[in-house]
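Chapter summary example.
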Amino acid sequence: MSSPYYDLEADFFQRAFREALSFDAYMASGEPQQVANLRQYESLVALTCAQEALLRSYTRRMNCLVLSGLWCGDCTRQVPMLNAVARACPLIDMRYLDSRSHPAVHEKLRINGALKVPVVVVLSEDFFELARFGDRHLSVYRRKASTEIGPACETGIIPPSAEALAVELGEWCDFFERLQLMLRLAPMLRKRYED
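The structure predicted for these 195 residues follows.
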């Protein structure tokens, strides 16, 4: 009898994940100024002790595919946040793809009809899609709505306030907590791990 659990895109995402880069390799692929812009955010992003403890407590593996661009202001801010989450949790395997080098993945991950970055796809250990998220959190859209008129794109050169960064990092932590609980409570995995 075949399993009732499957994902028609599992093979596609597994191939993309195998092609994706570690954080260090992804950073090495960038232009010096792009890398410098992103590095400035690393010093501004810090998980709280509670967030670190929660991330360390996870018991289910998550494969995370991040479609990004080192040229992108939103990516410049969010990639260090994602890296901080992955560093705190050994069960999160975070990999990065440059959107311009992987057009098939970029096409597959359109949001509201548009090609966006960053887009994060979180996959189970079986490469079943749990969720995808892109391109900005609610706190960022609220901040932009309160200060901007018309279309604009942040450059990532001037960081938001420390409070705004902490809120956005908290939103990433909440996103991953929801998915970890989804995995922890999944009947297929509970049966597999007898827990």
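To summarize the output: The chain has nine helices and four strands.
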